[in-house]
Amino acid sequence: KVQNEQVLNLPMLATSSIVPDPKMGYDHESGMVMQFLFEGLMTIDEKGAIAYATAERVELSKDRTTYHFTLREAKWSNGSPVIAHDFEYAWKRMIDPNFNTIYSYLFFVIEHAKDAHEKKCPLDKVGVYAEDEKTLVVRLVRPSPYFLELTSQWPLFPVNSKTVLNPGWSNVPREPHVANGPFKLMRFK
């Protein structure tokens, strides 16, 4: 028994099609589960204000179009560190025109994201990149006051880039499910 363990039981239908992958779960139930399993750069606190989550600091350029996010020490549930590349990989995965998602438009505020999604330029031109393991740089098309709040939403959550290469990594009920949030996914036996 783990001391100070917190258990959250969510009643879901056995036939529910929950997909605990921030890039593929489109329904309300999947989104609710992902809010427990993953953590974005920012979060919304109990007062409804934007607050730091995986990011411990953010610097905004004078023209308000370039963000430098510094990540805090965080781990995936498999013990590997959460790194800036995990965010870059996850976001570019959503923008990729070959990836089937309804949420790619959320990224169009990022420089060249819309063009890359429409196959007008390569993904490596998109204005999001890992400067190093702890620094994620995001260049926007124009100042967007809602951008920090957007990073708290599950389509912009990171994924462990090494785990996602394994097909079916997020299939339920599969254990262990790799996530970076406060809870781990478990199934009843």
Write structural notes for this entry.
By secondary structure, the chain is α+β, with helices and mostly antiparallel strands. The chain is built from five helices and six strands. A hairpin with a 2-residue loop joins strand 5 (128-132) and strand 6. The two termini are 17 Å apart. The mean pLDDT is 85.
Brief descriptors of the model:
alpha+beta, 6 strands, 189 residues, 4-stranded antiparallel sheet, two-stranded antiparallel sheet, 5 helices, single chain
Provide a short characterization of the protein structure.
The chain has 189 residues and is α+β, with helices and mostly antiparallel strands. Helix content is 19%, strand content 15%. It has a 4-stranded antiparallel beta sheet with strand order 3-4-6-5, with helices on one face. It has a two-stranded antiparallel sheet with strand order 1-2.
Biggest sheet architecture: 4 strands, antiparallel
Low-confidence stretches: none
- Helix and strand succession? HEEEEHHEEHH
Name the structural class: alpha+beta
Strand content: 5-15%
User: What is the first-to-last residue Cα distance?
Assistant: 17 Å
Average pLDDT, rounded to a whole number, is 85
Number of strands: 6
* Residues in helices, as a percent range: 10-25%
Gross morphology is: globular
Report the total helices: 5
Widest sheet, order of strands: 3-4-6-5
Topology at a glance:
Layout: H1 28-37, E1 42-44, E2 50-52, E3 55-60, E4 66-71, H2 84-95, H3 113-117, E5 128-132, E6 135-139, H4 147-150, H5 161-164
Antiparallel strand pairs: 1-2, 3-4, 4-6, 5-6
